[in-house]
């Protein structure tokens, strides 16, 4: 998930450099959403790992 967020971030940067502001804004929004989803999944797995008392990874 973080890999996709990074890909969309790079697309956003490249589109911004070439002046495609609408594409850059869209890619930035997608990257932001994917990043927050990845953080939420990480925190859920971390909490369950602590609650179970063993390493889930």
TrEMBL record:
Pfam families reported in the protein's UniProt record: DUF1328
Domain of life: Bacteria
Residue intervals passing through the bilayer: 29-52
Name of the protein described by the UniProt record: UPF0391 membrane protein ACFOFO_24220
UniProt key word Signal: no
Membrane topology of the entry: Single-pass membrane protein
Primary subcellular site in the record, as a coarse category: membrane
Subcellular location: Cell membrane
